[in-house]
Amino acid sequence: MSTVPATNNRQYRLARRPSGLPVREDWSFTTEPVAEPEEGGVLVKTLALSLDPAMRGWMNEGKSYIAPVGIGEVMRAGGVGKVVASKSPAFAVGDVVYGTLGVQEYARLDAAALAKGGLSRIDLRVGTMTQWLNVLGMPGMTGYFGLLDVGQPKPGETVVVSGAAGAVGQTVGQLAKIKGCRAVGIAGGPAKCEWVVKELGFDACIDYKAGPVKDGLKAHCPKGVDVYFDNVGGEILDAVLTRINRKARIVICGAISQYNATEKPVGPANYLSLLVNRARMEGIVVFDNADRYGIAIAELAGYLKDGRMKSREDVVSGLETFPDALLKLFRGENFGKLVLQVAEG
Amino acid sequence: MSTVPATNNRQYRLARRPSGLPVREDWSFTTEPVAEPEEGGVLVKTLALSLDPAMRGWMNEGKSYIAPVGIGEVMRAGGVGKVVASKSPAFAVGDVVYGTLGVQEYARLDAAALAKGGLSRIDLRVGTMTQWLNVLGMPGMTGYFGLLDVGQPKPGETVVVSGAAGAVGQTVGQLAKIKGCRAVGIAGGPAKCEWVVKELGFDACIDYKAGPVKDGLKAHCPKGVDVYFDNVGGEILDAVLTRINRKARIVICGAISQYNATEKPVGPANYLSLLVNRARMEGIVVFDNADRYGIAIAELAGYLKDGRMKSREDVVSGLETFPDALLKLFRGENFGKLVLQVAEG
């Protein structure tokens, strides 16, 4: 069955590798006709895309946990869409799905991509479309497995998370509270900090723009830091290292402060605190847990339903705004999980 | 029973906290009469002292895994000695013992120190006096528990260790070989590298003075690095971070390159390799394993006996040479575990 619309597909492609913050010249905005899906494949209309700090890393050359986006290729992005044409028995027209759709209005996925689990049906009764890109999507999975598997928080311990008002941070702090921990966020500006405490129920939030993070940690983590979930790197990671407890666990999830560095990034000068405190710093990549996403989604959806977990998304509209929208992340301008709405549905 | 010698006890005391490399003015060389042990205590004549990089850290003020040496106090040092007077039922005159004797010719240990396990009898048939400060002493324990518990090497994996010709490094590399791993050392100069390979049986040794460590790792770790046991920190740690495998374990044992830094130490700029590789960096402090030293000593003594493990000590003689002898460590001038011989026995 096929209902391929007689329209064009607009796409953002990587024109060149950026140095520092991506600029308009790093992108090409292209248009091509929407094509039929291949035999065994589907055509998905993009509804909303997830904009994530990790995208900056995908634009760089070199070995990483995932291949870089090639020059001339459509920029990689996860998103929610609707199946508009299907030559696959696994998906029907009208299915709402999550997958790596790319920064484009229509995504064609072939049989091989589908066989690798490249597309999954989502249920909008369990969470809204934007929640499926947030708590129930990659950020939620990252927070869930990073905190629970690597951070291993025990009731009564203190969990600190940077980027607390961001996508991953929301989940981490609220989940820490649910697991019986003291949750302390680090975020930029009074509005985010107030929201994190008053709406999400963190015990405290340190405004890194208002004063030294070290002082905030002293004030709000009187028993030290047992788990630090790091999304930012740089000076904040270094400050937390001075306050960790014996056998502390530091989850290295990201380092948004370093992603656009044009010089060599700054390492954590206080890393010997790991030695003094017999502590651990460990990196995570969410994709390693793909076989357990279902478990995490079921648990997190339960918390959304019973009100123990809330979410906030910062929605920007229009595919054409992508280059500027992405920069909001690196300027700390997004308030909640940043989502690019591409179509109404 | 008491046979307190009618002589003086010469001691090195910390006169002030050093800035950078310790200089003569940081020490005071004092003399006091040898005194009777207290009731329940013992008097030990120092035979040989262990000189370790960690001593530099003990001279600094501030919270660490152990209290700093106070100004005016005898410098802390582990050593082997002979009991010359005993008012404790646990020790007899003539017993050869290991304990924290301090940089002095005679150490008085009171009942409280003995109750905490501050002194243990050693058997010179199992290892020589200097081996009891090396493979069978704190460096050996550090290498054993750091490698096995934190590094968790599996047969066929590649283990890299810096300071390979030093006290901890010798044990780590040889133990890695015994456990079925490829062992690659990093050391300074051709003599040390040759000894590590030809005498100790490492598969390779990279001379960090001869060229970029990164190139050496490429050449000698064709399958990447699974375990890195770090004694040095700084640029070498950063270089190894670029060559680690997925799920690699980095054991942070020390950072001799940073101990005398007068500016803020340099952090590992490539630490995000932990994220890309889902790898771990974890600190160790040997004292945490005190209840299992016996297990480690039994195993390591077996390897010494059957020839699978060798050791080398660099022995400097004379208590008075202590300030200069200690500096050999930080200049990389010691070849093997550095020992200060204080008396003949």
Question: Can you summarize this structure?
Answer:
The structure is a homodimer of 345-residue chains. Chain A contains ten helices and 15 strands.
What can you see in these coordinates?
The structure is a homodimer of 345-residue chains. Chain A has 345 residues and is an alpha/beta fold. In chain A, helix 10 (322-330) links the parallel strand 14 and strand 15. The two termini of chain A are 20 Å apart. In chain A, helix 3 (138-151) crosses helix 4 (167-178) and helix 3 crosses helix 9. Chain A has two domains: 8-134 and 312-341, Quinone Oxidoreductase, Chain A, domain 1, CATH 3.90.180.10; 138-287, Rossmann fold. In chain A, strands 3, 4, 5, 6, 7, 14 and 15 form a seven-stranded mixed beta sheet that branches. Chain A has a six-stranded parallel beta sheet with strand order 10-9-8-11-12-13, sandwiched between helices. In chain A, strands 1-2 form a two-stranded antiparallel sheet. The first copy, chain A, has ten helices and 15 strands. Chain A has helices at 54-58, 111-115, 138-151, 167-178, 190-198, 213-220, 234-241, 273-276, 293-306, 322-330; strands at residues 8-14, 27-33, 42-50, 78-86, 96-100, 106-109, 119-121, 158-162, 182-187, 204-207, 225-230, 244-252, 280-283, 313-317, 337-341. At the A-B interface, helix 8 and strand 13 of A face helix 8 and strand 13 of B.
